[in-house]
Fold this sequence. Notes:
Number of strands: 0
Distance between the termini: 65 Å
Number of helices: 4
Order of helices and strands: HHHH
Number of domains: 2
Radius of gyration: 22 Å
Largest sheet: none
Shape: elongated
Structural class: mainly alpha
Amino acid sequence: MSYAESITKFMAWAEEKIAQAVAEDEAFEAKAGTRNFISEEENFCPKRMTSEEKMYYVQRYLVLRGQGIPAKKAGEMTGARPSTLNKWKREFQAKGELL
C-alpha cells in the first residue's frame, strides 16, 4: 500500500468515525431534549470566592473525607473538584490557618 493510499484509507476511516459520533450526539440530543450536555447544578461553587468561603468548602470536604467518603464523591457533594479543594487546603496549611 502506498503512502497516498494509506492517507486515503485513513481519511475515509476518520470521516466514518466523525459521522458516527455526530449521529450519536444527535440521538442523545433528541432523547435529552437539549444540546446542553453539561449539568448546570447549583451545587457547584462560584468562580470567585473569598478566603472565608474557600475555607468553608475545604472544611466541608474534609469532614466528608473523614467520614470515609471517596475524594471524588466528597468533591461532588461539596460542589468543587477535589484537586481544587486540596490546593486550597495546602494554601491554608502553608499560612497556618488549617492544621
